[in-house]
Request: fold
Amino acid sequence: MTDAEEAARLAAELFAAHLPGAGWRFGLDNARRRAGACDYARRRITVSRHLVAGAPLEEIRQVLLHEIAHALAGSGAAHGPRWKAVGRRIGYTGRRLHDRAIAEDQAPWVGSCPAGHEHYRFRRPSAPLSCGVCTRRFSPAALITWQRRSSTREAGPGVSRDASRA
Ligand SMILES: [Zn+2]
Ligand SMILES: [Zn+2]
Reply:
């Protein structure tokens, strides 16, 4: 668990180390589908307040490094080799959670179970799936319903992460 002040302090520290004098600001957003966002036009990096409330500081650090790498690599780099190289250089480890954050950035299919856990897929699942957070085995009571998103852009203001572990 991290509080908003701790997150802001950490962001200031990381901006000073990696984006000195570049005029980037930090903020929290209300997004639930992504962990963080990099708004190139407004030079603003935001982290979901839901993530901040539920995650340890080390996880917030990784999300900030993910977004700082976007700021350094430029919007055209997306999650390609240039962004990856920058991320590696500044200490972004890109482990499981963050791969999931990337899937959430880009996956066009968003599903939710009756309890509201969100799931992300690049293709619409061909068979019915139940929520792995609610139940370990297939259960019709925890069936996920899928919807296609219209657009998914990292640089937009809406960003975040959800509570599911699937
Ligand atoms: Zn990203
Ligand atoms: Zn669920």
Summary: Residues 79 and 102 are 8 Å apart (CA to CA). The longest strand covers residues 25-29.
